[in-house]
Amino acid sequence: MLRNLLPLSGRTAEPSGHCGVPVKAATATAFVTAVLALLPSVAEAHVKWFAPYIVGAPPAPISRTLADPWFWAGIVLVLVFFVATRAIERSATGEVILKGMDRISDPLWNRLDDFVHVVIGAFFVAIFAVGGVYLTPDLKTPAEWVSWVQLLIAFGVFSKRTMPLSAAGIILLWVLALRDYDLFHLFDYLALGVGVAAYLVLASSKNPEWKKHRFEALRWGVAIALMWSSLEKFAYPDWFYPLVEEKPFLTFGMPRDVFIPMAGVAEFTMGFGLLWTPLVRRLSAISLFFIFNAAVYPFGRVDLIGHALIMAIIVAIAADHTRQVHFLPAIKRSLAGVPVGLMAALVVFATGYWGLHMTFYGIEGRVAPAAATEMATHSHNPEQPHGPQAIGGIGAPPMGEPDLEEVSAGAPTTNTGAPRDSRAAYEATMAKMHKPMMEGMAHPDPDVAFVLGMLPHHQGAVDMAEVQLRYGTDPANRQLAAEIIQHQTVEIQRMQNWLKQRGVTVPE
């Protein structure tokens, strides 16, 4: 087994007479795990599965995140507990805690390869059963043969001879997805796919020096995927607004603009923790497991299928008994290495995310109107409607057949066949806009009054554009509506930032 291939790097073997974990050690472990688990996270549901998004739209400037005190509050909180965990890990108590974890996870550790193979196979069977997707609910495809490739991948993971073929199939599906989705969008899934493919190749290898790194490949794949996707909460916080507004329990009672940046910090730092020392990565994995599981019920089967592979790999990380630390081990073992490593990771990933977006789309961003309208939400689930879909927004499914009496009377119909519904939706946008707009313009400072009046005005334009995309059929109007959403959203962010800089409360 793997633990025979990876010595403990100077640590002594567990005494045969050891009989338990001291209470103080168990308490410390539980405390650190609980704190990490309680750090806010949007239940880790991938927002692109449930809410409108436009990848090519310009992201919020990184300076906005760096100026957010809640971002730094989350960073400081995590650093305190990561450093505390490292301090415990370096002591005799840390080894006792790790050995206690080893005993609890022994049954899984002894069959960990079997567990990973079954999970990978089951995941691809589930994706095959869903049909019409590449590797995740987010990536739709009309090609039926893609589903059969996924079934072959599932069968191939159970034999060392065919594991490399399954690995090649995973990479092939990602490459094929480039035909329908741009490269920046697919970065979300590249790291995880490469991690799983690398595991299959290494697990089938006859070279023990290669094979011993197979679980590490999985760990890096999940960690990079989590850290990259977490940046969406800083670059596009508005993608998360519909979910937060519809399901306020996700915020644990915190204001939206406090919760979302701290949720991004939690996801990024726990992904970072998976790459650190044994106790840090195992506690991070345990915390992530609880958070991912919390998303299953409120977000339904789409979330369960989409995250099943990540959740299983997280379980494998929590059960990993190895003590070796690769890639800058001296820094990782140092207490000062925790803040240095985290800051370096933030710089690398933020530079990569904003830099690549600017390289792909330019400073002003780029929006393909068809993508903004037809692909706003790829996987509507009628059993678990979310965001604008639940109220007739972008990406919602048709609402039924046309009203025959209205059609016979000459009423204009749309792609939904619900003219009275579209009229009510337009009227609702005006009713929502009027009062806050008038109240804002009553502010004694004319500059503040202008911004407070324009904010609901712009939001009203966005709301009207979403109604047009929901009910309208004219291509020119739909393109105009998509452009309005893009540009007005950017201007809303600028006005909100202006108010925050002057200490004016930003209206929700």
Folded structure, characterized:
With 508 residues, the protein is mostly helical. The protein has two domains: 20-361, no CATH class; 381-501, no CATH class. 67% of the residues lie in helices and 0% in strands. It is built from 22 helices and no strands. It has helices at 2-5, 23-38, 62-66, 69-90, 92-109, 112-130, 144-156, 163-177, 183-203, 208-211, 214-230, 232-235, 241-246, 256-273, 278-319, 329-333, 337-361, 369-374, 404-408, 419-441, 446-471, 475-501. α6 (112-130) runs antiparallel to α7 (144-156). The radius of gyration is 25 Å and the shape is globular. Mean pLDDT is 77; it is low at 1-45 and 368-418.
Number of helices: 22
**How many beta strands in the DSSP annotation?**
0
Order of helices and strands: HHHHHHHHHHHHHHHHHHHHHH
Number of domain modules? 2
- The global form is globular
Q: Give the CA-CA distance, first to last residue.
A: 55 Å
Poorly predicted parts: 1-45, 368-418
Mean pLDDT: 77
Major beta sheet, specifics? none
Approximate strand percentage:
under 5%
The whole-angstrom Rg is 25 Å
What would you call the quaternary organization? single chain
Give helix % range: 55-70%
Helix vs. strand class: mainly alpha
Pfam families: DUF305 (PF03713)
InterPro entries: DUF305_CopM-like, Ferritin-like
Organism: Aureimonas glaciei
Transmembrane segments: 70-88, 115-136, 148-177, 183-205, 258-276, 305-322, 334-356
